[in-house]
Amino acid sequence: MPWATTLILVLAGLCGSSLGQYNEEEDLAWLQYYLRQSRVSSYNYVPYYEEESPAYAYSYPSATDTEPEPEPEPQQAAPWRCPQECDCPPNFSSAMYCDTRNLRYLPFVPSRMKYVYFQNNLITSVQEGAFDNATELEWLALHNNQIGSEKMGKRVFGKLQRLERLYMNNNNLTRLPGPLPRSLRELHLSYNHISKVPSNALEGLENLTALYLSHNFIFEMGASLKGLKSLILADLSYNNLRKVPDGLPASLEQLYLEYNYINAIPDDYFQVSPRLLYVRMSHNSLTNQGLSSNTFNSSSILELDLSYNRLQKIPRVNTNLENLYLQGNQINEFSISSFCSVVDVMNYSRLQVLRLDGNAIKRNAVPPDAPLCLRRATVIEI
What we know:
There is one protein chain. The protein is low in regular secondary structure. It is 7% helix and 10% strand. It has helices at 3-14, 27-38, 370-373, and strands at residues 95-97, 115-117, 139-141, 165-167, 186-188, 210-212, 233-235, 254-256, 278-280, 303-305, 323-325, 353-355, 379-381. Helix 1 (3-14) packs across helix 2 (27-38). Its main location: secreted.
């Protein structure tokens, strides 16, 4: 057995470490690192600014021996080493926790990292090349910081071809970051200052399943959702939209548009999304004049929230609908034809919850054939 391997086994036994953590190619690097640690080595991080070079610098105290040990190359020195500002659990070696530490800069990310957490800090910028060394990243958490769009590198995510989840909610972004990796599955951008989403802003994100853009100032979406072939959830609530996005993807299952200023929906708008289950459009400006007779007559929708709009009549819905929320409108009549085009033993609505409270309907205005049509209903509030 080589003397280096023997010594590593002894040292590993003394410090309670498992040699299984290291492969044979890393034996000598691990030994050198241990010997340096015994002489009290240090890690110095230098924040990067555009006018400074290089981006990162590492320094090691000279050894006390007469013949100093050669220093490694800056970018190749202990790539598995954790920055002193962060925690890298030994039992989860691909994760780096740098959250809630009042950091104002991004520490160096070792190449082995897949999950990196920078949330709840005071970071204001993401410099170009910040993640070029960490091409294996899958989760990147940058939420609850002070990052502005003008202080983000133009291609900062360019080399992250395995990134699946990006969290940048609760920052100071005024536009969508990009270009974004095609591998992305979840994009969290809520609670920013974004005002517009260009039609090509999400181009190429065919793996994206969840898009969170709530609590921004978006007034225009264009056709930015149309090409997202895998999108399941789109949260555009609490914005300044005056019209629905131009075209929905066929894969969509959940659409949240509440707290906007939408006053109309095109005919057959939801028909292009045959998997759509949940539609929430409460607190908008919808009127019956802005809806066609078949706008919500989609057989897939199970829950429809149209509360707190300006509707005067109950819109026609499909018999497969299970939950309908219409409270807080201006509805003055209970039209059973909105739920059942034909009322008999074989034709009835699957509706379970119907809320009509906060309207102008009187309790005695319920038609006599309502119990037959709405026989599945367990909650009807007027």
